[in-house]
Fold these 3 entries.
Entry 1:
Amino acid sequence: GGDRRRMRVVVYDRRQYALLVSSDDVEQQAGMNVEVYSKRNYARRDAGAAPMALFEFDDDATVADLKSAFQRKFNYYASRQRFYVAGSDAGGAKPAVLDDDAACIGKYARGAADGGDDGDGAPTLALVFKDLGPQVGWTTVFVTEYAGPLLLYPLVVLLAPALYAWLGADVTHVRGGVARVAQLDFVQRAALACWMAHYAKRIVETLYVHRFSKGTMPLRNLYRNCAYYWAAGVVVSLAVNYPRAAPHAPLLGAAQAYAALAAFVLAELGNGVAHLRLRALRPAGSTKYVIPHGFPFDTLGVTCPNYTFEVLAWLAFAALTQSLAALVFAALGAYQMAKWADGKHRRMLDMFGRDYPSRKRIVPFVY
């Protein structure tokens, strides 16, 4: 091909002020200049602050090239970096984020709110840099979240008689004239099997099924998520596995327990099918979004049938155990999944517009 022009990327950050270098150290040449500021330092742009660093790229340099160079100099790994066009968030507008690592940096210069000429005839694009903080991979996130309830629920089952006895509760029942520590009844054994199967399934899906559109999550969120799931494993198990002198007595008799157990199993199967269908739509290494069709997406007419089935599974678990703690856990999960479903539904509408089928978010025919 022909000669390539070089593009320079200038990065500012007040916290790194000691690392500033003089712009005189960089040979002036034709190309595109990209200035990057911290948000707080952007207001000082006209004060003449020297560049923190000056990178040189070919005209076809991508966002990934920028992040790689930035990491080499300042040790912010790529998933911690976020850049958006300076001034694009004026008036509360949604900022123009450089969220496509494969895109050429130059494409963001078109229509930029702030830019100009650096004096040598080269166009200038101003960007704002934000440190997203320490990140953790989604696989690690989910395995850590789900390992807690998977281990804690059965641990509480083993310790419940001793714990409740220590609290002064009567944990024995009389059988054949002999007082014995109460054993798990059918409902408690079924609940244990359901709980263990669910979280074992989630870990297997995390390792072998899910393909994530984003590679990482802020580390600070991991503590919050683990606190929720791990606490649920303890609280729900304590409520369900109280040592009883008599077995659980469902309001509608044994039929309720068997129906709830069957509903839980069917909902888990539906959830798994939805996850497998989503996996089939996204090749390994791809973050591309595709409209899913077939069962259960077209059948239920919702954007997130995996959430639909998950909510049904936990409602069935609550019906099986007749536990208030289990019902609260199901309600909290339903609320959060409804929020996630709304966000995903809006994203699909933004991406595909009129091509996206008429669907609800999570509840067929309702929401």
Note: Residues 16 and 52 are 7 Å apart (CA to CA).
Entry 2:
Amino acid sequence: MDLLPSKYSEFNTKEYWDSFYQKSTRFEWYGRLSDFSALLYKYLGAKTAKILMIGCGNSSLSCDLYQAGYKNITNIDISDEVVEQMKQQNTEKPEMEWVCMDMLNMSFENATFDVVLDKGTLDALYSEQTAECGAMVIKMFKELGRVTKPMGKYVLISLFQEHIIRAVNEFIIGQDNYLSEIQEFIIRSEESKYFPFISCFTKMKDVGQAKPTAKAVMKMKGWEKSTAVPTSEIVEKVLESQRLGQFLDKTNKLRAGQRIELNCWDANSNTEIPKYTLFVVDAHDKDLLVQRTCAAIICPVGKEHTYYYKTEEGNQELLETAKVSRLVVVLRNKGHNHGELNMVQEEVSGKVLQVRPPKCKTDP
């Protein structure tokens, strides 16, 4: 059964979603509550919070939150088909409402909700990089801001494709009346290729409250702690983390003869050339693969373009000499100040540890 539209623009039509929900059973975008519950509960705050779930679809998220004690939930969707389905399925949840409504033109009074919750709805609305979609996104943000109380929150779960994080960065984070926080999470409840982000944007009071500096507190893969990031760097930080996520997805299994390249950038040093290039190389020999061992080697300065360090064949020969399942070859690229060898080891150790094969028996 083909549930995807023939054109991305159909994601913005009521007709597509009515047809989708006539055909589909329960459908989850970007994981289940168990994948991000700790972060979401922190953002939702008190269980008495008045919550608006936009583009609710037939996701179980509202029902799961209801079971967790968050019962004051209003669910809206443009599809009357799915709204009627969810009403019928949840008659035993009297405090929860299901309403057919367009989030771009809501009938709620100003400052009605403590939290607006969005799980994949912005991604569906901004399905194409067109002026029409961009205008709808701006209208969406204005409507969400209108119905949110002062100190209320817009909680967004998104894949943050580049055009989407740019829009969020410009029209929410870049405004001086929002406090912003962005974190990644891993979908563990099912096999998934998605790398979603959960974000919380707190609407500041209009009167008598200091305006925050335009930035976001971010926590990405491999970061030891949350860090305040200015708007000028947010998009690149998100894209960098997405590239790392895709890279780690490829390296989570040993594959005979696999060789993957990872570039590590330093925006404070040189934005034209990566500071380091890592080649992650897996053995051809199956006897070596089953050992689940790993080693790393840092290329001597001046040898970056030689046979052993630059070519796939040379990397394999180094691996066979080391007799390991996986070898990480680290190249220092020109145009950067790398410091002494111990400084290089310290700087790349985190990345090297991230690409160890699962259940690795050695530390590189």
Note: The chain has a mean pLDDT of 87.
Entry 3:
Amino acid sequence: RGMHQVRNHPTISYHNNIPIPSHNSLTTTMDSSCFVSIPITSTPIPRYIAPRAIQAKPHSIPLYTNTRTRSRLFMKTTSYTPSKAPQLRDLLDPTASTVYDTSQSKVDLIQLCQQSYYAKNPNPSIPYKATILVWLRHYGCTLCKQLLRDIQQQVEPTAEQNGVNIIAIGSGYPEQAANLAEELNWKHLIVSDPLRTTYKSLRFKQGPLNTFNLDGLKAVFKSMGQGNSQSWTTIPTDPFMLGGLLVVDSKGRVILNHVDDFAGDHCDLKMVLDVVKSPMTVQ
């Protein structure tokens, strides 16, 4: 009876029978009998709370399918020549490239690659060459902090000298992204994908067995031993979502892609540096 009533509620939409609150409501109580919707006006960011039965089955939410090209990133780490590289627009569904900046504004991730470079460098002496896109597990993750610190130390100087932009994408909320950027002194763009649409469209891996296998647990202990704290109060939208890394050139072509196999299975940054320093067609 309660489920029948909530289906007709004007502030809740559905995706595969999963209730998703609209921008002016937030589902705060979910059980087998009813849902309670409380109006809010603080933020337009979608905040989805899954029922326990769905939380226990992370693969119950289907992956997004690109009906135009069926293009996908399947290999763990792949580099491409520009003539054979897939277009990022063909890998991301048209509705799956929307993310949120730290001011909670909607932005298109693909357009953001070039726009953010010229926003930071209005009259650049070095023309725009490429963007490194880094997908994080979540903003409180010790392994993600380690990855961003490694990028700052090992990749950032070379990237700036070669007209390469860096953008981090997290599966949390803008306020969490802002806190992480402040903690790490991250001067590059960081955006949020709270519903993980870019993750799903690129088919990044998901699930507890993929996330915390033996190698993943070893990586966690190693990272924490190096001083990268785990922020337990930063609640992720999906703790079992893994990330990856793409290098996209000025023409929107994916020159390098890496898909994490487990938590901490980050791309070899030496390979990223080789791509950054390689000749590409610049804008």
Note: The two ends are 58 Å apart (CA to CA).
